[in-house]
């Protein structure tokens, strides 16, 4: 089968190996064998390629998500051959070979129910949704318990998850709380507004004063932290006295906080939590609702650029250069 292999780490994007002769995985009980049609790229795959995911064995096919068609259902479940599905996490691209391939074998628990793909929705559009929008949904619903009366602050607002958080917040699922988002690029302000941000702040390192100004001195009620250790202290200062911040992503590459005094940053009664897509329950995740909302125009798929599987190295290079405002996708024709 066709596949993109990471032979070792760390490597440059150009050192990812595209092959047409990789062994195709065999059907296995308790797993769904998926004919991959497209996959979204994620920062975690970039970090793995750079050597920041300890304990993994190489060579490895990367990819923590994919969309495609069921080739074999592995017994049990509600799937039939030909069903359209999405798969995320569960060890994909880390503990076992992932979505950067023509076929992938994924445990039942990490595969969606069959999805009815609306007429006109492309594989690339569908591939932009599962990991990104389900992470955003879980963050807003489960981690932050977002309310329509809240002010939501998104640090890293033009990342794919940041844009999805803004779009979902403005959807009928969360009834349009006020959204403040950051971006480091003036060229990305318009996309942040188009996806639902009411106010956009150019992030030069410290934004707490501007967030306070936009909120009449109070600060934001809820915060999605997507930049990571370099900004989390400042994001905490941006919160209202009893605000909640959820650490979700790390586009800065800094997972740890070098200068973080919790007694100061979280005073007087702020809360720090986190969310990971690894805890998403695919059996209850609202992926069909998200797909349908994109089809009717309530949400935007957020596709920034589409590559072919053989150009996955170029896609990584594009993502690593922070050129994207939204999701980078590879299709497997």
Automatic annotation (TrEMBL):
Chain ranges of the Enoyl reductase (ER) domain: 11-330
SUPFAM superfamilies: GroES-like (SSF50129), NAD(P)-binding Rossmann-fold domains (SSF51735)
One of the record's GO molecular function terms: oxidoreductase activity, acting on NAD(P)H
Keyword vocabulary terms for this entry: NADP, Oxidoreductase
Coiled coil: none
Pfam family, one: ADH_N
Domain of life: Eukaryota
SMART domains per record: PKS_ER (SM00829)
InterPro entries per UniProt: ADH-like_C, ADH-like_N, ER, GroES-like_sf, NAD(P)-bd_dom_sf
Protein name: GroES-like protein
Upper taxonomic lineage: Eukaryota, Fungi, Dikarya, Basidiomycota, Agaricomycotina
